[in-house]
Amino acid sequence: MTDLVYISGSGRSGSTLLERLLHADGRVFAAGELHVLWRLPPERITCSCGARFADCGTWQAILAASGLGDRLGELAALEARVSRSGFLRRRGMRPERLLGEAEVMCFLEAQLALVAAIGAVTGKRVVVDSSKAGPRAFLLSCLDGPLFIHLRRDPGDVIASWRSRKFDRGLGADMQRLSAARAAEDWLKAEYFARAVGARRPVAFVDYAGFCGAPRATLRAIEGRIGSRFDGVAWTGPAEFAPGAGYHSLNGNPDRFSQGPIDITHRAPDRAALSRGDRLAARVLGGLAGAMFPARGAAAVSER
What we know:
Layout: E1 3-9, H1 15-23, E2 28-32, H2 36-39, H3 57-66, H4 72-82, H5 85-90, H6 95-98, H7 102-122, E3 126-132, H8 134-141, E4 147-152, H9 155-162, E5 167-168, E6 173-174, H10 180-198, E7 203-207, H11 208-213, H12 215-226, E8 235-237, E9 240-241, E10 262-263, H13 276-292, E11 301-302
Parallel strand pairs: 1-3, 1-4, 2-3, 4-7
Antiparallel strand pairs: 5-6, 7-11, 8-9, 9-10
Helix pairs in contact: 3-7, 4-7, 8-10, 9-10, 9-13, 10-13
């Protein structure tokens, strides 16, 4: 059996950094944003190993082992129908109703097949999916087995980060820049679904700033909450670790391509580089969003 650890949160929340830390344990395979397998055409995916998706032997072997190579379009269509806020709410957010629907089960079983194939091909005991999507996290929480970590970053910083320019060498272009309103909506949606999952399953709620300030303590707290150990991380300093071998992350922050020791540091967006309107939006919308879903105190990890 291979365990699935799902990282939820808004975009620009620090999931790539957390994913790389977990992958530094030799038992772990960090898949990156697994949903890009069915969301993006193969020619737009660059593995963190540097190979285009079609040329990455690891991912081609995983697809072959999963039997899903010719069904990725089907997964995209299923996600568009069942992994949506409206779909879940119309069914009362009730797992028994959701698991009674054939399309939901087909969507979930395909993901479990992917996780099993990753374990079979790589020999890893834990697979980390940092897709972050809240509705998908909730669907997965209807099953026994998946483990959940939720990253919360200050919403003003998230909005400012979305409005900042960042080049992704995997895409060969600047990363997508959401509007301030869309970034705030994405943040609120992530927080809403994290609490919905947390009402049913153990969730390690991680504060980004707390994680950067005390990464080792955060990792221990995550272990205590989700019941999975990450003892194999090779720490090279108080907040620095050696990256794990065989890293094949599908998508995420461009930092997934970096080599050498990884330093866990808090990165605040450069708000001075933003337009006046974006700075105002980050402050106002960030303040409103943070008031709706406030931080959980000073602890790096809280339970609910």
